Amino acid sequence: MSEPDLESTKSATELVLKSARGRWVLVATILGSGMASLDATVVNIALPRIGADLGGGLTGLQWTINAYTLTLAAFLLLGGSLGDRFGRRRVFVVGVIWFAAASLACAVAPTSGFLIAARALQGVGGALLTPGSLAILEASFRQEDRAAAIGAWSGFAGIAVAVGPFIGGWLIQAVSWRLIFLINLPLAVAVVWVAVRHVPETRNPLAPRGLDFAGTALAAVGLSGIAYALTEGPGAGWTDPTILVTGLVGIAAIAGFFVVEARSAHPILPLELFRSTQFSAANGVTFVVYGALGGSLFLLPIQLQRVLHYSPTAAGSSLLPITVVMLLLSARMGRLATRIGPRLPMTVGPLLASLGLLVLSQCGAGSSYITGVLPGVTIFALGLSATVAPLTATVLAAARSEHAGIASAVNTDIARTAQLIAVAVLPVAAGITSASYANVADFSTGFEHAMWIGAAALGLGGLLAFATIRKPLVTIEPTSMSSCAVDAPPGGPACVGATIRRIPATTGTRDT
Q1: Which backbone phi and psi does 399 adopt, to 5 degrees?
Q2: What is the pTM of this model?
Q3: How far apart are the C-alpha atoms of 157 and 160, rounded to whole Å?
């Protein structure tokens, strides 16, 4: 590390939160991560209007979501490594500019295929941008201000997630779905200006010199092949040569990925993390829970708008209880899990969320919001609130302290991968085809089946937690402003704004 880098790191770690520069750093990271958070919450609301405008049917809508999720999941871990090596501010700024350029391409998309390609590019920008926002905070502030900075960042991120569906729905209804992408442009200009002027550059002096491009490429090819086969298979036929080839190539690439990671000197996914049965079990629960979450929130806005005839504004507002309940309860559930251990909350939470989906399964034509939608959404939110913070605590507790950052990133990547697969698989499993999507009654029947499947998956997640989760060796103490985002912020833990406190080893054991 050069002398300027050492000086940069030294000054960065001495930043005071209440100083003018400290506030500017907080503004840059909040606005930057806010762009991705807004997109994550409003694009689902826009799907019916996008489908009506550009066509493409159900498959086109699946790819509108999954193109972004695919590239985000494939490049997320690499994005964090690039920031550690080449400078967190530099990679963060590149990610913001990339994300904004891709957002402009999304806004002017003339066809469904063009939009899908632009969304894939947007996911790459997100993979560069989002790991950097939290990493900048962790590297920039002095130790005594770090938890407060992360708590403020997560609190404002929670506000963005809360208002996103309402604002996005209003923009879609009043103007056009294209505006939800255009609003990223002025935000990006502000972020770049603040970051260049006020955010200090920091690097990790211990970061490996090499980068795992081979592992990243194999992950991208593997996820792409599997997602393509699962999404296009129902229409083309599972015996279609293209489907068979892409599916097999995807499976082979994923197998090759694990071989490369086991042999690499600088893997993006250290397989040694999975030597902990607690870490493996918690990520198994993550996969099941976030798969059900991603698949359900893909179909629910479509059901509300096409079957119940909600406007985009009303559909977005209908989902507000999920975020509000999580903002109010997630930190409290984190503290409860600290006292009693994560096993009980992680068992009860998914079972409660499962009940919420069962209630939502009865939300059909003629249902009112008060009796048909609100009860299911609220129960679902209560279950998620009981699950997400203890789940994050368990993941971080299962990893050694030096691996806490990569452990949370891996957990987030697993959540994204689960959502990717669920959006591809759940409609097929529920009997929703391109033909049934075009028929409102058939789609509503498929939605009901999809909620049953999601409920079963969440029930499985609760049972898995009961069978495998034990009290962790560390406790997670949420700050007063901590929050847990519905979709798990990429590049960081699903619940942020927390302080890790390690307790004596005599009170528990850890698998290694």
Answers
A1: -105, 150
A2: 0.86
A3: 5
CA 171 to chain centre: 23
The residue among 411, 394, 315, 305 whose CA lies nearest residue 349 is: 394
Q: Which two tokens stand for residue 228?
A: 């393509």
Structure tokens at 43: 């694009």
Q: How many Cα atoms sit within 13 Å of 441 on the Cβ side?
A: 0
Give the model's confidence band at 479: pLDDT under 50 very low, under 70 low, under 90 confident, else very high. very low
What is the rounded distance in angstroms from the CA atom of residue 365 to the CA atom of residue 444? 8
Q: Six-digit token pair at 337? A: 């899990």
For residue 144, with 0-12 CB atoms within 10 Å meaning exposed, 13-18 middle and 19 or more buried, which class applies? exposed
State pLDDT tens for residues 256-268: 999 999 998 888 8
> In this structure, how many other beta carbons lie within 10 angstroms of the beta carbon of residue 502?
11
Residue 336: in which H helix or E strand, if any?
Answer: helix 320-340
- How far apart CA 91 and CA 295 sit, in angstroms, is 31
C-alpha closest to that of 459 among 278, 285, 323: 285
Dihedral in degrees, nearest 10, Cα atoms 136, 138, 140, 146? 140
Number of other CB atoms surrounding residue 35 within 10 Å: 27
Residue 430 CA to residue 445 CA, distance in Å, equals: 9
